[in-house]
Write a structure and sequence with these properties.
The protein has a domain of 104 residues: Aspartate Aminotransferase, domain 1 (Alpha-Beta Complex). Helices cover 43% and strands 9% of the residues. It contains five helices and four strands, in the order αααββαββα. It has a four-stranded antiparallel sheet, with helices on one face. α3 packs parallel to α5 and α4 crosses α5. The longest helix is centred in the middle third of the chain and has 22 residues.
Amino acid sequence: KRPFDFELAPIDLREDNYRLLNGTFGIPSLYAIQPGVDIIAEIGIDAIRAKNVRQTAILVEKALEAGYTVRTPLDPEARGGMIVIDMPHSYEISRELMARDFQLDWRNQAGIRISPHFYNTDDEIHAVMDEIATIIKTGAWEQHATQRTFVT
């Protein structure tokens, strides 16, 4: 109950979830985040959200046009900052995208998770969707068909 008292046993433990926390906060890491906080404050949360809504809308539109399944809400007010799309061989496609230096994620029974950030350009949004189409068209995903690793 008093983590900074450095008590000797027996220690009086908390009864709530805070009992599972231990150690001192990583003060240097808290200090290191300041430039990121400054950038976000300069841009503004509302501007970041507006850009994310616009870019995720591009992803949804292109995914639906391509015939992919969109597993995140279509309503921008009901979704967060990522889009999950699925198609046949989505795992293998995600591996090939990562081999081509696209940063994304994949989840079983969900698909490819794409999360645009405030620093991503619209060209990058279009590029990932174009690359998925290229990978499918060329069959480049097939080289990953026998290599199943842990989720990313």
